[in-house]
Structure formats: structure tokens, C-alpha cells
Amino acid sequence: MPPGRIIINTKGYRKNKIMKFLNFVIKYRLLLGVFFLLLGIVVNIEAGFWPSFVLYLIALVLIVGHFLFGPMRLIQGYMENGDMEGAQKVIDSIWFPRLLIKPVRSVYFTLKGNLAMANQDFDSAEAHMKKSLSLGMPMKEAEGANKLQLGMLAMQKGNMRESENYIRQAIRAGLPDKENQAAAYLQLSSIMINKREFRAAKEYFRKVKALKPTTPQIVDQIKQMEKYITRMPG
């Protein structure tokens, strides 16, 4: 490479610009739809229907898209960045969740459940998660993650039987990554300890360690549980 030459990743830059534009459209989709509708009416009055047809069509796509698909992409972006307040504001902007198409409505209730869990509102979280499951999950991994959270909520309430049932269902449905798998086996190990099934507890604990999770909370729980696991019979 000649000295002083700077290589710019134009593909990445272009992709970033497109994503920003899409997020802008999703955020202001309803307002843009109303703007194009009003503009279409003005053009219709001044020049007739056909010159305004494209404006009406754009308005229809934007307004219908707002109510059928919602701003799910924006909510997930906020949650991935840890901005729960921003995510809550976006989800509160969905006035008519029943108009969302079924897979999107399922994601909507999952995200509401996640936000409720973050706020320690476990009853609301459980209700939203169950509603999401009843609608059907768009992906198997999402179903597994949802059931894992329901299992953890049941454990919070001290309902070990329900917790075990949900966590086993989550493992069968499939979990999205090793961290979630480790969390599931760790909870099962804890449940087995509570049931005094020490051999099963040790087996699930071995599975947790084999996954080598890196989430600080899980790593801390492994360290604490290891003190007791080694002393158990079986």
C-alpha cells in the first residue's frame, strides 16, 4: 500500500447509512404516512387523481406498515444497547398491539415481558411471556428462550415443579446460544439439589461447565455452586 493512502470500507459505511435511514423511516413511519397523504390530497385537488396516486400509495404503505409491523426493530436495538428507558418509550408508542400481525405481536409481548423482568415486575413478565407463547413464536430458539425465562420466573416464585417443566421444554425447543444453555442447565442443577437428586445435579453442573459460559452472573453462580457440588454424595 502506498504511504499515506487511507482505505475506506465503503461497503460497511453504505450499510450503516442504509440502516440509519431504515431506522428513521420506522421511527417516523406514521408521521411520514400522514405527510404523504396530505400531500397526495393537495396534488389531487390541484392536478387530479393520477398524479397523486403514487403519493397515496406511499402513504398507504407507511401507515399500514406502522400498525401491522410496529417499531420492533427500534425496541430490540435499545434493549441490545441496555437502554431500557428508551425501549419502554418505543413500546409505549404502540397504541393498538392487536393490529400487529401475529408473529410481530408475539415478539411484542416477549419484549414487554423482558422489560417487566428488568423492572422486577415478575407477575406482568409472566403474563406477557405466556401471551407471547400462546400466539406462537416466529423462531424455535425464541420459543426456547421464552420458556427458559418462564422457568426462571417460576423459580423466583418458589414453584420448582413448574420451573423444571418450563426449563426442560426450553431445552427441547432449542436455545439460541451457549450462555442460555448454561443458564438452563444451571437452573436444572439447582432444582435437582432442591429435590435431593444429587447425581442428576452433578450431571447438569458438568454440562454447565462444559459449555464454558462467560456471562458474569452465570460464572459467579458456578463458583458459588461448586463449593456445595463437591461435597454432595452420589
List the helices and strands and how they pair.
Layout: H1 10-27, H2 29-47, H3 49-69, H4 72-80, H5 84-92, H6 102-118, H7 122-135, H8 140-156, H9 160-173, H10 178-194, H11 198-211, H12 216-229
Helix pairs in contact: 2-3, 4-5, 5-6, 6-7, 7-8, 8-9, 9-10, 10-11, 10-12
Description:
There is one protein chain. This protein has 234 residues and is mainly α. It has a domain at 10-69. The protein contains twelve helices and no strands. Helix 4 (72-80) runs antiparallel to helix 5 (84-92), helix 5 (84-92) crosses helix 6 (102-118) and helix 9 (160-173) runs antiparallel to helix 10 (178-194). The protein is elongated. The termini are far apart.
User: Largest sheet, described in full?
Assistant: none
Using the CA coordinates, give the radius of gyration.
Answer: 24 Å
Unreliable segments (pLDDT under 50, ≥5 consecutive)?
4-8
| Beta-strand content estimate | under 5%
N-to-C CA distance:
64 Å
Total beta-strand segments: 0
Counted by DSSP, the helix tally is: 12
In round numbers, the mean pLDDT is 89
Shape label: elongated
User: What is the helix fraction of residues, given as a range?
Assistant: over 70%
Secondary-structure-derived class: mainly alpha
Order of helices and strands: HHHHHHHHHHHH
